[in-house]
Amino acid sequence: MVVTTTISDSDEHLHSTFASRYARTSLPKFKIPLGSMPKDAAYQIVKDELMLDGNPRLNLASFVTTWMEPECDKLIMASINKNYVDMDVYPVTTELQNRCVNMIAHLFNAPVGESETAVGVGTIGSSEAIMLAGLAFKRKWQAKRKAQGKPTDKPNIVTGANVQVCWEKFARYFEVELNEVKLKEGYYVMDPAKAVEMVDENTICVAAILGSTLTGEFEDVKLLNELLSKKNKETGWDTPIHVDAASGGFIAPFLHPELEWDFSLPLVKSINVSGHKYGLVYAGVGWVVWRSKEDLPDELVFHINYLGSDQPTFTLNFSKGSSQIIAQYYQFIRLGFEGYKDIMESCMENAKLLKQGITKTGKFDILSKDIGVPLVAFSLKDSSRYTVFQISESLRRFGWIVPAYTMPPDAEHVAVLRVVIREDFSHSLAERLVFDIEKVIKEMEDLPPRVSLESDHFTLDHKADEQHLRKKPKNADEGKKEICSYWRRISGKKTSSVC
Ligand SMILES: Cc1ncc(COP(=O)(O)O)c(C=O)c1O
């Protein structure tokens, strides 16, 4: 790399220079360069390369917040240099975290008094929160089994096959067997009756999702609680429930306060929620709350002494930023219950508008439900000429990032597109997206079917795959299945690229 060091470091150059004036060869990729470079050069070089990233606001694949008020941005920048773990140095930040935990616990109907401290912790996201909740269940189960003189080497967890990948991670990292209830076409969430059937004496918990990642649908936690209570009575076990409310935790309390899914159900012992999804904070914050102290084994809690008082901590990592915790507290007091409710209502309205537009094209079946996370999941009625994957690719031309994926077992033959509606996705953007979807469909329909398959972004380098795709499907259903199975092969059996 050629770096011109004669160019001054002064701020004058910040807006008037371009990276090509500094770096004439490719940038360092493997080794830290020997010498330094002027700060304006480094800034411009990095900024220029980042231009090729997608636009976060048009990233409709993600639930994660992409816009916050400038006042909150200021608070974030002001605390960007605070390490959260230095609790004795930043006691106010710690206090803000504790206030957030209390507010979330009350929102989820935890049995704590008006001014009683709740049990929970801020995390990097729902994934870390789920690891912690899962570990607590595992330890509790092990302790009970040991006391009964029973083996503790085969813990399992029961979930739907629609769980987010973090549950698979938990199972693998912490050596717990993951027993998944299979889905079927037309039913894309965990069937509570089947889940309870799968529970045995080694089940550390059943995890229900409030807002399936794939379709946004809420699982029936109330029915699960009923059926599991019955089984617990019959067997003498006390299998608990965890609710993965990563996205639904900040939707249901505002839009469906009558829905019973939280600590109001006795078997629900812990709940996670992503602050960075509908908690309306930028990426990097999640929460886990336990029903009571008894549900979090004390051996998992580390006690840090700060300013003479005891600060219990239970997280996987040590250092982390403080900004997201501060931003979460800002959102809670800035928006209040009414503010969150307004935002969630407007997200739902935009989801409805988009759903109507997509339905009107006549080309799609809608898989998402009206009660759930504000998103629209839809599949092609007929995939014999083009696929959802091609639609997803083509929409990129307009800047839209709309993921396409196949469902988990046993509904792998169903391929869907999913648009997540966040606060910053407006009415007019919804109209514009429908317009672009119609345009893409029209273009594909104007192409002969074979050309539309070949025009995809990937190269057909396996002869078998090529022949497979060129075989004319007998009917629309067969076409859909063949195309999906082809996609699964080339994508290394990945079922989902969504978060
Ligand atoms: C249901 C569910 N659980 C867990 C996660 C992981 O959340 P996070 O990205 O906050 O770690 C997601 C992410 O989309 C999710 O949808």
Automatic annotation (TrEMBL):
Molecular function terms from GO: calmodulin binding; glutamate decarboxylase activity
Alphabetic keyword roster: Calmodulin-binding, Decarboxylase, Lyase, Pyridoxal phosphate
Gene3D superfamilies referenced in this protein's UniProt entry, alphabetically: 3.90.1150.160, 4.10.280.50, Type I PLP-dependent aspartate aminotransferase-like (Major domain)
Endpoints of the signal sequence: none
Catalytically driven reaction(s): L-glutamate + H(+) = 4-aminobutanoate + CO2
EC number of this enzyme: 4.1.1.15
List of residues that carry N6-(pyridoxal phosphate)lysine: K277
Cofactor: pyridoxal 5'-phosphate
Family assignment from sequence similarity: Belongs to the group II decarboxylase family.
Protein function: Catalyzes the production of GABA. The calmodulin-binding is calcium-dependent and it is proposed that this may, directly or indirectly, form a calcium regulated control of GABA biosynthesis.
Name of the protein: Glutamate decarboxylase
